[in-house]
Automatic annotation (TrEMBL):
UniProt entry keywords in alphabetical sequence: Cytoplasm, Hydrolase, Magnesium, Manganese, Metal-binding, Nucleotide metabolism, Nucleotide-binding, Nucleus, RNA-binding
Cofactor(s) the record lists: Mg(2+); Co(2+); Mn(2+)
Catalytic reactions on record: a 5'-end FAD-phospho-ribonucleoside in mRNA + H2O = a 5'-end phospho-adenosine-phospho-ribonucleoside in mRNA + FMN + 2 H(+); a 5'-end (N(7)-methyl 5'-triphosphoguanosine)-ribonucleoside in mRNA + H2O = N(7)-methyl-GDP + a 5'-end phospho-ribonucleoside in mRNA + 2 H(+); a 5'-end CoA-ribonucleoside in mRNA + H2O = a 5'-end phospho-adenosine-phospho-ribonucleoside in mRNA + (R)-4'-phosphopantetheine + 2 H(+); dIDP + H2O = dIMP + phosphate + H(+)
Compartmental location: Cytoplasm; Nucleus, Nucleolus; Nucleus, Nucleoplasm
Origin organism lineage: Eukaryota, Metazoa, Chordata, Craniata, Vertebrata
Domain Nudix hydrolase as annotated: residue spans: 18-173
Gene Ontology CC terms, in alphabetical order: cytoplasm; nucleolus; nucleoplasm
Organism in which the protein naturally occurs: Heterocephalus glaber (Naked mole rat)
GO BP terms in the entry: mRNA catabolic process; nucleotide metabolic process; sno(s)RNA catabolic process
Alphabetized InterPro entries for the sequence: NUDIX_hydrolase-like_dom_sf (IPR015797), NUDIX_hydrolase_dom (IPR000086), NudT16 (IPR054754)
GO molecular function, one term: snoRNA binding
Name the record gives this protein: U8 snoRNA-decapping enzyme
Highest taxon of the lineage: Eukaryota
Amino acid sequence: MAGGRKLELTEALTLGPGWRHACHALLYAPDPGILFGRIPLRYAVLMQMRFDGRLGFPGGFVDSQDSTLEDGLNRELREELGEAVSVFSVERTDYRSSHAGDRPRVVAHFYAKRLTLEQLEAVEAGAPRAKDHGLEVLGLVRVPLYTLRDGVGGLPAFLENSFIGAAREQLLEALQDLELLESGSVLGLKTRVHQ
């Protein structure tokens, strides 16, 4: 994986004091919408355009005042997405994976939180008023979870963007594990991305 070696959460939490921890979350919701009257959306999945021009998930570094990884993640979500995230909380049960990179010595923890479509839309609407909007976060984007007839438009084209760290791989794993796409469609995308 591009973001470093994968490790278990228990191992990640026992790494020495020279390591920093960062947490990020994929926020998603069932979406009954139909695009162009024929393409079912199925789910809305949020990512963000970062200050460096790459796509990633909302979140950031856990600080010493945060008592848990999840406390740090929820604080970062409020800073980056605004007060609409206060109606839910990312919990340990939402945890998905950890990846360690040697330079810098950072462990990136990844979570996925299912919301209602109304909660997700409130996050989208409130994000421009968040503390870090226009600074660390340049805007939110929805991941297109479909492929157009040309075989390129939609998710395949989206995956051609530049992603930070392991974000592309985390997205593909989450889409598959959470069954957010039609079964089998992620396999072909993973192969195409690694070519």
